[in-house]
Design a protein that fits this description.
The complex is a heterodimer of chains A (about 120) and B (about 120). With about 120 residues, chain A is mostly helical. Chain A is about 40% helix and about 0% strand. Chain A has helices spanning about 1-10, 45-60, 80-95, 100-105, 110-120. The longest helix of chain B is centred in the N-terminal third of the chain and has 28 residues, at about 5-35. The chains are: A mainly alpha (about 120), B mainly alpha (about 120). The interface of A and B includes residues 15, 37, 39 and 90 of A.
Chain lengths: ~120, ~120
């Protein structure tokens, strides 16, 4: 009995990479360098941020969805007003549950700036 | 006097535009605080936008100043006593609640799945 336990303790069964359930479908490339279910993975990936920001901009009624690219300028390329820019920034705040201070929000003028700000913000989710 | 476009005039106009943008932003957030349900909020947001658009072609700098001051007074009058603030922001419920854990500590939320890596 003790022998069996000792043997079992030293046996290693090869573990297959099962499909990871839960909210983290991160690439388990280098044999789990990014752990699933960890508390250190609460940062969005850049592609996620880009997709969501573009969705927000495309669903704005005054915007033509075909013209929206990740580096489009709200006033020059999309022909929006400065008040429309304010509305888009508010919509991005609501999407990512952020609170952007007034001075910073005033400077966000294009998609690329918005994506950069959201990606670099530690609390975007 | 109204035809002089010096750098000071443009600087003043730019400052006014910034004030208008910030005022619109705060007024919109306030509208969202008061009108929680989205269909009511959209209606009120449209009304607010109409109010701002009605004065957008004014060229006289002093009149613009007066309009902005009037708008800010209205905003002060209508401020919500309990605005929605994102929890981790100053004024929110999670602000300064817990100190951030040191970066070396990692919590694995895999209760029940410890056998699968």
């Amino acid at each position: 009995m003790a022998l069996r336990n000792a043997v079992l303790r030293h046996l290693r069964v090869p573990v297959q990479n099962l499909a990871v359930r839960g909210s983290n479908q991160s690439q388990i490339g280098f044999l789990g360098s990014i752990r699933a279910f960890s508390s250190h993975d609460d940062h969005l990936s850049k592609q996620d941020v880009v997709d969501r920001v573009l969705d927000v901009v495309k669903s704005f009624p005054k915007v033509d969805p075909a013209k929206v690219t990740p580096d489009v300028h709200f006033q020059k390329d999309l022909g929006l007003d400065s008040l429309d820019t304010v509305e888009i920034v508010m919509a991005i705040e609501e999407e990512f549950k952020l609170e952007i201070p007034d001075k910073e929000a005033d400077k966000i003028d294009s998609c690329s700036l918005a994506i950069e700000y959201v990606f670099n913000h530690p609390m975007s989710s | 006097m109204s035809g002089v476009s010096t750098a000071a005039y443009f600087a003043r106009r730019a400052a006014q535009k910034e004030r208008v943008r910030i005022l619109y932003r705060r007024a919109l957030k306030d509208t969202l605080n008061w009108a929680v349900h989205r269909h009511i909020f959209y209606r009120d947001a449209c009304d607010l936008r109409e109010k701002f658009n009605a004065n957008q072609d004014v060229e006289d700098v002093d009149r613009i100043d007066k309009l902005i001051a009037h708008g800010e007074a209205e905003y002060d009058k209508w401020r919500h006593p309990d605005p929605y603030i994102v929890p981790w922001a100053p004024g929110g419920s999670k602000f300064c609640r817990n100190p951030t854990p040191p970066a070396e500590i990692e919590i694995l939320y895999n209760y029940g799945h410890e056998d699968n890596p």
